[in-house]
Amino acid sequence: MSDRGCFSTNMLRIYIIFMICLHVCSASSDCTSHDDQEAVSQDEAEKATKLKLGSIALLLVAGGVGVSLPLVGKKIPALQPENDIFFMVKAFAAGVILCTGFVHILPDAFERLGSPCLQSTAAGKFPFAGFVAMLSAMGTLMIDTFATGYYKRQHFGSNNGNKQVVNVVDEEEHAGHVHVHTHASHGHAHGSTELIRRRIVSQVLEIGIVVHSVIIGISLGASQSIETIKPLMAALSFHQFFEGLGLGGCISLAELKSKSTVIMATFFSVTAPVGIGIGMGMSSGLGYRKESKEALMVEGMLNAASAGILIYMSLVDLLAPDFVNPRLQSNLWLHLAAFLSLLLGAASMSLLAIWA
């Protein structure tokens, strides 16, 4: 599979759509009156700005370290796929991503779309959060399977057509060697398909994570309360670190070119800080109101879509292949260790839900 510019193009499209949505939100009707909004003194605003600038640096480091550890870990023998500890690391990362979808993002989507401000709209008469999450998971399934099938057909059409003819000749002239040749071709094809699938998984997973990272960055950047910003800084730092850990593990499995790997890791690292910058700009001069009807709808829909992507990817593409792996099922202690790692990863992110 060629990864030349494919990921960057898709990410650019996501950002263009996202920025259009945010532009709509900036000129929206507020559900709360201006008298009800919290007045912030000049001194408090300056302190809040300093905290936000500090949070940009903090989240940049936390996300960068988290996504880089699995990539650097490829050089460590103990963390390579042929070692048992790799199953535990991957299970931990999958637990983080699964919990992010179920505990952090989906409840927020229900809260935003279930706001009393939206009772008079379609969102107040239909459970859009669950509906969008379901459609997102189904859409991810379609992208996952169709893209894998497309590149598989491309691979067979360009590389394996002559090999199939050779196998037929071998069957006629060297019957005793047919199984060997066919088995080798099958192994090569299976390996190529698996690698393609891993690349698709890493790219689709990043889409779900970066959309959510931008949203939480905007939430922090738009806040003017010091009491709100301080705990968010700590919680979101751990949040970005663990999400980066999960994403970095998937990127390392994809075996992308060095340039593509650096682009994906950098893209994840900067999304939350960029979101903070967008939120700061909106709160200071663009009239963004977090509780407006349009903002509630856009953030709720995007959160629901992100949750559907992350839940599907963690269960279907990360956990299922490993937990049905004969190597894992034939080793009781490894099986238990992987399951405990999964629980530990989910528990780590669940604790963060208290503050973020």
Automatic annotation (TrEMBL):
Keywords: Ion transport, Membrane, Signal, Transmembrane, Transmembrane helix, Transport. InterPro entries: ZIP (IPR003689), Zn/Fe_permease_fun/pln (IPR004698). Residues 1-27 form the signal peptide. Its main location: membrane. It is found in: Membrane. The chain crosses the membrane at residues 51-73, 85-106, 126-147, 204-226, 261-280, 300-320, 332-355. GO terms for molecular function: zinc ion transmembrane transporter activity. The keyword Ion transport applies. It is a multi-pass membrane protein. GO terms for cellular component: plasma membrane. Belongs to the ZIP transporter (TC 2.A.5) family. This is Zinc transporter 1. It comes from Eutrema salsugineum (Saltwater cress).
